[in-house]
Amino acid sequence: MRLMHLADLHLGKCVLEAPMLEDQRYILRQVLSLAQEHAVDGVLLAGDVYDRSIPPAEAVELLDDFLCGLSERGIPVLAVTGNHDSPERLEFGSRLFAGRGVYIAGRYDGTVRQVTLADEYGPVHIYLLPFLRPAVVNARLGCSAANTDEAVRAALEGLPLCPAERNLLVAHQFVSAGGECPSLCESDTISVGGSDNVDVSCFDGFDYVALGHLHRAQRMGRDTVRYAGSPLKYSLSEARHVKSVPLLTLGPKGEAAVELLPLTPRRELRKIRGRLDELIAAARESGGEANQDYIHAVLTDEAALDPAERLRTVYPNLLHVELAPPEQAPLDQAEADPMAHKSEEEMFEEFYRRVTGAPLSDEQRAALRPVIEKARESD
Length: 379
Prior knowledge:
Blueprint: E1 2-6, E2 14-15, E3 18-19, H1 21-37, E4 42-46, H2 57-72, E5 77-80, H3 87-91, H4 94-97, E6 102-105, E7 113-119, E8 122-129, H5 134-141, H6 148-156, E9 166-172, E10 174-176, E11 197-199, E12 208-212, E13 218-220, E14 222-227, E15 244-250, E16 256-262, E17 269-274, H7 276-286, E18 294-299, H8 307-312, E19 318-323, H9 333-336, H10 344-356, H11 362-378
Helix pairs in contact: 1-2, 5-6
């Protein structure tokens, strides 16, 4: 069985006021082509389908086109809501859609929806876990989860996971591995104090976990717990990211392989750096489609009059202009390390003053000096 793992479409999103809808339409058509080319048996969609809870009409139409395209090809879709989605809106009509192979888990009602597909090796049980907050889980289950990790464990407890059969999970949470946090970009957010953190050990019973929430594709703890990442670059910090879509191939129980299928955007997001006149001259010399890319320009010369307008004459999709910080003369040793010229006694006295608010007494200095001498002798 082959399953494609998508997440964080963020349909309707703008990047620094630049609407991305046509770029999203382009990339979803590419996803449809890849799904058909690789004869996938289903698409796992791990949340943040829309960029906001009330999406623009054009974004809704785009999702409708994408789901219809998959349905027409006989490819089931198994989706959950993310923190950007409205559970009620995304789930609307889901009971009707299920008849066309579109399964959507929007609101968490105290149960985890299960959809079973099958191949020559038997059933594949896919569990759909929408984005969870502890308050919702506590209200539905009557428990007292203090954080998201406890909430997710409570929601998954008691699932009928057959150890002899293949079990998959689609979820949208902030997941870490043994205290090691995933790689983040500007568009990702984490909670203060880590209350939203879910440890990967929550998912030990699953053969594959299709995660959404973070925009950089990455594994968490093992190859079969994975963030798909967003299909497009949605922040300036993602300029160097390579976007892809994971293709999961399931064999018999215990055999799962992941291949990352590269995605080619309609326009790249690039960071360029240099003097204003040099950047303009380079663009005019190169010409071509690259000048249509989304550009983050860093200027190394002094501010010129309307640098953004001048750059837009050659880069019409300029997103942002910033000035590089001016170069500073190298510091001498005393400036680079203000403690370098001070004796051990002076440094200790400064430390003591900061801690206690009072200077050393003559008695304390007399007691300190033999300690410093002894320390020097042991060096």
